[in-house]
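Because discrete structure vocabularies remain unfamiliar, we reproduce here a specimen of the format, pairing a chain with its fold in token form:
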Amino acid sequence: MAELSVVVHGPNVQDHLTELLDSLAAHSLPDAEVIVAAVGDWARETAERHAPDGGAVDVVPLPDGTGDAVARAAGAARATGRWLHFVHAKDGLPAGTPRTVAERVAELPGEVDVLLLDHVRSTWHASGMPSPDGSILARAGRADVALDDCAPLLRLTPLLGTRVLRADFWRAHEARLSTDDEPYAALAALLLADRVACLPHVAYEDRRLRPASLPPVTPGQRYGLVERYESLLDLTRDRRAAHTVLYDLMVRDCLRTFARGGMPEEVAREFFRRASLAALRRRPENHRRPAGLEGIRRSLLEEDAYAKYRAFQAVNRTRRTAKSVLRARKRQAGAKLRDHQYRRALARPVNPHLAVFSAYWNRGVACNPAAIAAKLAELAPQIHAVWVVTEESAALLPPGTDHVVPGSRRYWEVLATAKYLVNNVNFPNAVVKRPDAIHVQTHHGTPLKRMGIDQMAFPAAAQGLDFQALLERIDKWDFSVSANSHTTRMWERAYPSRYVSLDHGYPRNDVYYTAGAGDIRAVRDRLGIAPGRRAVLYAPTHRDYEAGWTPRLDLAALADRLADDTVLLVRGHYFYGGAASPLTNLRRTGRIIDVSSYDPVEELCLAADVLITDYSSIMFDYANLDRPIVIHADDWETYRTTRGVYFDLMDQAPGPVARTQQELTEILTTEAWRDEGAAKTRAVFRRRFCEYDDGRAAERVVRRVFLGQDGRDLPPVLPIEERTPAPTPQEATA
């Protein structure tokens, strides 16, 4: 019996079924089978081409016009898997999804009936857009729960394709779940389940067809929205939390549907009347309306005040227009004043003794700019450094750090007159490149994922990027810092312009060769790591297709399996710095330390005996220490497909690769993480990606950029076999 049955159902709309089956055929499906309930001759012929001689695809032919509910039921009847994943023929599955889902359901306890997945959205003109569900799934985590204990899960987009159902659960409730109203089936599945679990991972692509290519919406379908919610609310009797959330969803969706318009007047009136009756009849006891405009809308709906609601809409549109005009005028006035101040400053001579530094969108003194600024103070103290930091970050600056806040008058003055501008991202578009000013782009990592204009082909990564503006910012660069020849080539490809590549190494990595035993002991003391204990640093990267961060590992279970003398240091990506940490309930164990807010990250690397990461550039930096690295790559295919990569990490990893938590645990509880094979793999990786890092990168950059020395006067890069990394924690605490 298969662990998972992928039940593809429906007609081959706009030939999307071909693309879906091609993607399934491109990857092996361990513990999974594919059933295609093919509606119509075109779908049947397409499916049969993917199932030659009774291959991995089992085709169930169905006549034209067969509805989705009947097609799903026919596919499920043929399936042998313990779990069912219903996938509409028009939708898609990211690479590796069946494997990921099969592994997840295999570890779920028997009382779980539904596994919830994240998804991306595609339309006829855009693809791979993140869903709004990521933050809800992230908050729920990976533990299984009863819906009554996590009612916000009802707010997830009602797609049946993002619910994987236990086959026995499906059979027990097939009569209720077999409906062509997919949102009803998706919500009913949650309400009927004993327990649910989440996989906060993109495992479905919801493809929205162009509205003009679909049949027009009938009045009955409009009214069906109200009927759907009333029927679902019948399932929430004596379940206050679920009833309240579902009621709020009903009112919200009814008001949104009404506001979108597109209904004839008589249909709109009848829809409003039915929604009003449902809002009154189903309102929870002591339910309070929200404040503000939303509360007014709900009040008018409950009164069935159709005419008043229309008048309210008209007044609201007028008010929004007036506010928008006023805000635009204020912005224009402020922009004119700032522009005038900036232009006046640009007329002044460039100050040859002024350098402006920024890092990570003005977060503080960090990364390559910080290492360069420190070396600059040593070698050229006549050059004054000013840091750009946000108002919130200013309080965290080292004592005596001169700084400016973005948007302030002095901010524009120093940007206009500084001889040197150093950043690991980009300065704002409005910054003018003066002919006698020097812009240094230090970057903040070695690229595994696609960057710059190479993101154009990956919508999930490129969402919101203005590539023309990006190219204009690149054209301001005079120098681009690089840690290895791979990085140099990729920067020249991703950021094409006339800058000079500085193949000097990343200054932030100097510390991996200059730190001594005392420095390492001091860091471990600050972190509370006792001498003799092994520190494992887990530092995953950001996913463009996830709204929030949920650790992809069961950290408590991992800590339990590791030796008692092991401490797990967990660092979330800085993109999630303002979010509530999912580690809150684990911090107090003493075996797990949340170091997400600890800076600089280089100190964490010095303190760690071994690094666990996925696709983060931290692996390239940590490799300088010549300490073990383990890769946890449970969603490599999805990451590679949605973000794009420059090389196959699975073939060129810096150490052992685990595709599941079980594999990772086995690596860490045996000698596999530090055996001879791991050392050989790491040596190849270090030779390629630590090419220019030898402890003197900052000096080379300062001498070349600020002191104008040429290559003959710069410290030569030491061959890798002649370098001595910082001592290991074991050596430092011996």
